[in-house]
Amino acid sequence: MHLLANASTAVGSETEELVLHLLVQLVVILVATRVVTVIVRRLGQTDVSGEILAGLVLGPSALGLLFPEISTELFHPSTSTIFVGLAQIGLILLMFQIGMEFEFGEQLGQRKASVVLVSLAGLLLPFSCGYFSAPWFHAQLADPSTPLLGFRLFFAVSMSITAIPILGRIFMELGLSHTRTAALVIGSAAIDDVIGWLLLGSVSLIVAEQFSFVWAAQRIAMIGAYVLVVFFVVRPILGRWLAKDIAKRGGLSLPAIAIVLIVLLCSASITSSLGVFAIIGGFLVGLALHRDRQFVELWKQRVSPLVMMLLLPVFFAYTGLRTDIGAIDGWWGAAVCGMVLVVAFGSKFGGAFLAAKAVGEPTRDALTIGVCMNTRALMELIVINIGYDMGVVPRDMFTMLVIMALVSTFMATPMIAWLMKSERRPVAAA
Domain named Cation/H+ exchanger transmembrane: which ranges (predicted)? Predict the structure, then answer.
């Protein structure tokens, strides 16, 4: 196969070859995702687990191992930039939907202090455990020349991240998004990840020797100001306009969808420029509009299916393509990987569980909160990819952290379903 070999033989052929290559990739990803999803559904997992696993199957851990030439030709680097763009847009839209889906105020009531405490405990304990255990892991690496300080900081941040998009998908697919526990978890995870992204930005600058406390203070002040603008300026103006437009047209019109997309993408651009990444901007706008349940339902009917069926599988699959399980070397490598799991799961689950018990949550709900906060998935992959690109997370540790993220995700669905089985609604109603 040489899809790009004759790309410049005729006017416009290079573009057409690129489009053809991209279309073939999309077809393969969607077919693989549907097949794997059917299989994992029978094993009690949600669709998101199948989408992640499909990426691993198509990547160097399976297809690349068995048929390296086909894998290289199929997922040619020429389309990687397009894939990153599609994946990030899909993730922003998903975060927007997650923000709209959860009825925070109604479900949490007076428990906002609980959200903050669970979030901080689920962040500080794993960060500390990761930072102080990192030297031992650094000594076990195949490439111990990796800078120790940079490795410690990135390892600590990787222990701290919670995967909001994955939790949102799991709760929605299990029919649990209406519950108070779901709202508490998503609220805690949102605070957790905002602080985590700030930490990531600070750590990146420390590694690059550009950090200053003035920078951190400026970022925090600007983010706080932007949150106030979204909730006290954008929300009332956009909410009133949407309500009038829906009443006038009898539904969600194309101009209304366009306006919402413009606001959403602008918000994502602003938060990205403030150092907390674009997905937080999507989440903030969704949270600001979540009270208008009519708009939420209309958006889910008209826009969400495209996001769920096309853009999100691209994000999950493309990320899986970058993971190579074969990078772990021998039994000792497997043992070190096991220790990574122990530190990650023990600190994250333990911190969230103890905090939930401290604020008066029943044991079953506290266990659920601990399991949920331990779910890292592809938010974790974003962090470790940045560390890998900066040269402070070597390939073998990168693979171990990927495994940690995936194991935490596959554990989450059956455990959440079991712990919250009495609160489930039919998915169509949820």
Answer: 33-421
Q: What is the pLDDT of residue 211?
A: 59
Q: Give backbone dihedrals phi and psi of 209, rounded to 5 degrees, phi first.
A: 60, 40
Question: Could you say which DSSP state residue 333 is in?
Answer: H
Q: Give, in degrees to the nearest 5, the angle at Cα 47 between 397 and 269.
A: 70
- Contact between 92 and 264 (Cβ < 8 Å): yes
User: Over the stretch 81-114, which tens digit does the pLDDT of each residue have?
Assistant: 887 788 888 888 988 887 787 655 554 555 677 8
Of 1.20.1090.10, 3.60.15.10, 1.20.1530.20, 3.30.1330.60, the CATH number of 101-306+327-423 is 1.20.1530.20
H or E segment and range at residue 44: none
Mean pLDDT of 52-68: 81
* Nearest Cα to Cα of residue 359 among 119, 186, 123, 168: 119
Region at 275 (left for phi over 0; alpha for psi -120 to 50; beta for the rest): left
State the pTM of this model.
Answer: 0.73
- pLDDT 10s digits, 122-140: 899 999 999 999 999 998 8
